[in-house]
Amino acid sequence: MSDLDSTDPCLGIVGLGYVGLPLAVEAAEAGLHVIGFDTDESIVEGIRAGRSHIPDLDDEQVARLCGDGRLEVTVDDTRMAECDALSICVPTPLSKTRDPDISFILSATHAVARSLRPGQLVVLESTTYPGTTRDVVLPALERSGLKVGEDFFLCFSPERVDPGNVRWKTRNTPKVIGGLTPACLEAGMALYRRFIDTLVPVSSTEAAELTKILENMFRAVNIGLVNETAIIADRLRVDIWEVIEAAATKPFGFMKFVPGPGLGGHCIPVDPQYLSWKMRTLNYRTRFIELASDVNSEMPHFVAGKVREALNLIRKPVSGSRILVLGVAYKRDVDDVRESPAIDVMRVLEADGAEVSYHDPYVPAVRDDSREWRSIPLDEGLGHADAVVILTDHSCFDYQAILDRSRVLVDTRNATAGLSTMSATGHPQRWIVKAEKAQ
Ligand SMILES: NC(=O)c1ccc[n+]([C@@H]2O[C@H](COP(=O)([O-])OP(=O)(O)OC[C@H]3O[C@@H](n4cnc5c(N)ncnc54)[C@H](O)[C@@H]3O)[C@@H](O)[C@H]2O)c1
C-alpha cells in the first residue's frame, strides 16, 4: 500500500525549475505538504526568501506558501525520507555530441534511492527516451532491496507545462501517467488526482515516455515543414504568412504552425534527439526527426541571408554594419534562452563582420561558449543600428515605433503585419519589411 491515502501526504519535488516549481506550488495550493529539493543553493535561498525565479509564478504566491509552511525548500536530500511521494523534475539536456545526458536523472535517482522506504511512490517527470524508467531508474531503486509494486511504487508521468501560456497551466492540462505495475499506476493516480483535473493513464512507463516525445516530435516536424515552406515561398515570391492564414481557414485536417528563425527552448529541439539516440541503438534511423532538425537548424542562416539581402538593397555590406537584434528569448514573453536560435543568428552575422547588439526586456545577458552579449536600451539600439532584426515577437514591443525608427527592418515573426502591406523588396513576402538609406 502506498502512503498517499493519508489525509496530509508529503510530496517531494526534486528539481525546482520551470517544471518543478509550478508543480510544487500547485500541489501545495491543493493542501499537500510539499518539500522542494534542489542542488542549487541560490535557487533554494531565493524561494525561501519568497522569490520566484519562474516568470509564470508570482513572488506573493511563493512567499505565502513558504510562509504558512505548505512549501519548504532545501538542498538537504536526506529529508527525502520524510516524503510519501517524490517527483523527479531535473534537466535532460544533450551532451556536446548531441546524445542524451541523463546524468541529472541518475544523480537525482541515487539521492532518492538512499532514502527509499516502504510505501513511497517515485515518479519520473523529466522528458527522456522510452525505457529510462524501467532500465535506469528501477535498477537503481531496487538496489535498496525493496521490490517495485510491492514495497515501493514507480511511475513515469511527463510534464506538459508551456511557459507563458495563460490558459493551460499545471492544474488544467491533462496529465499522462504510466506505472511499472498496476499498483504503481494506482499510487501515481492517487497522488496526481489531488491537484490535477484530468489524468490520462496508459499501460506502461514506455507508453508514457513515448507519448511525451511524440508530442514534441509532432511540433518539431511541423515547424520544420512550415519553415521549409517559408523558404519555398520566399523563392516563389509568395507571402508565407498569407498562405498560412488562408490554409488555416480549413475547418478540419490542418493545424497552424508558423515559421521563424529556428527551433528553441529546452524541449522541442532536444527531446526528439533522445528518441533518435534510442532508435540508433536498435538500428533504426528516425528520418522525420533528422530531416526536421536539418531544416530547422538552417533557419538562422536563412535569416542572416535576409539581413544580408536587406543591407544589399541599400548598398551596404554586412561587414561593418551595426545590427540590432530584437528579442533573444526562444519565444514570446518568456526569459528562456535555452537553445534559442537568436544566438546562432548573432553568431553568423558576427562571423560576417557585423557589429551585433541586442535588446530584450526579459533577458539582461546571453552567452555562448566564447562570449557574452548584454541587452542594450532599445532607444540607444534603434538610434545607431544600420539594420534591425525582429527575432522574438515580445508583446511589449511597440512595432510601429520600431518600424518608424528602423532604416532596414527584417521581421522573422510577422510581428509588423498590418503595419506594412508590401515588403521593401517590392514583393509581398514580408521578411524584409523596410530598406531605406539614411538621409
Ligand atoms: N521547461 C519546459 O517548458 C518543460 C516542459 C515540459 C517538460 N520539461 C522537461 O522537464 C524537465 C525539467 O526541465 P526544466 O525546464 O524544469 O529544467 P530547469 O533547468 O528549469 O530546472 C531543473 C532544476 O533541477 C535542479 N537539479 C539538477 N539536478 C538536480 C538534482 N540531482 N537534485 C535536485 N535538483 C537538481 C536544477 O538546479 C534546476 O533548478 C526536463 O526533462 C525537461 O525536458 C520541460
Write up what this structure looks like:
- The protein is of the alpha/beta class and 439 residues long.
- It is 37% helix and 14% strand.
- It has an eight-stranded mixed beta sheet with strand order 3-2-1-4-5-6-7-8, sandwiched between helices.
- A hairpin with a 4-residue loop joins strand 11 (365-367) and strand 12.
- It starts with 9 loop residues before the first strand and ends with a strand.
- The mean pLDDT is 94.
**What percentage of amino acids are in beta strands?**
5-15%
Give the neighbour order of strands across the main sheet.
3-2-1-4-5-6-7-8
Helix content: 25-40%
List low-pLDDT spans: none
Set out the fold topology.
Layout: E1 10-14, H1 20-29, E2 33-37, H2 41-48, H3 59-67, E3 71-74, E4 85-88, H4 103-114, E5 121-124, H5 132-142, E6 153-156, E7 175-179, H6 182-192, E8 199-202, H7 205-236, H8 240-247, H9 271-281, H10 287-313, E9 322-326, H11 341-351, E10 355-359, E11 365-367, E12 372-374, H12 378-384, E13 387-390, H13 399-405, E14 408-411, E15 432-435
Helix pairs in contact: 4-5, 7-9, 7-10, 10-11
The structure holds nicotinamide-adenine-dinucleotide (NAD).
What key attributes describe this structure?
single chain, 439 residues, alpha/beta, eight-stranded mixed β-sheet, five-stranded mixed β-sheet, 13 helices, 15 strands, 14% strand, binds nicotinamide-adenine-dinucleotide
Concise overview:
37% of the residues lie in helices and 14% in strands.
